[in-house]
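MODEL INPUT / OUTPUT PAIR
PAIR INDEX: 1
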Amino acid sequence: MIFQNFNYNEDKQKIIYHLDNSQDSYAGEDRGIEKAECSHIEKKSNNEEQIIAYYISGCSNNEETLLMQVDK
């Protein structure tokens, strides 16, 4: 199981992101809990594949994480 949790900190105007894959049997050595403060959510579209993807970005861990993707 993988859990993702998002909270908005109004004082800091940041999105607090938690990823918990400690119960994921396929996680390997990367298993654990991660936390990051992020500044925004980005929408990206790919015309070739007809997909819209949403990413959380501007994070303290310098990573961009895919939240979800949908067909156009």
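PAIR INDEX: 2
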Amino acid sequence: MESPTLSDHLLEAMLYTDERTDRYLLKLLADEAMILVREPSLGTIMMTVTDGKGQDFHLGEVLITEAVMEYQKQLFYAWVVGDQPHKALARAAVEAVWEKGPEPLRRRLIRILTRHRQRRMEQQKMEERLLVSSRVEFETMRPW
């Protein structure tokens, strides 16, 4: 399996941006000559997951929001889980600029999304510490 690339990490960071950040990214990228090909729309996909034994199974249908942007004569499609039109647009725009945009703008995206990813990782660590601190060892519990 290939190790994750910087673009993988940035797109992962896009999963956890809030609506304010998504709107900020769209505003930042508004000066780029992007064409909205398809407004964000709702759809469903069949989600397949792998269980603990390595077997794939269909979890069920999942609501998604999808959008398509055109940038420098190339189409960029994005979908996100849930009803999140700004996130779908922002993700398509970020992917477009990441692939075809000017270097200064790409560096700015790297800074913004790297910072966001680091905050998300810190939040996950804090949640893990809280979870560990609340863990109970049932073998040592005494009955009333």
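PAIR 2 NOTE: The longest strand covers residues 34-50.
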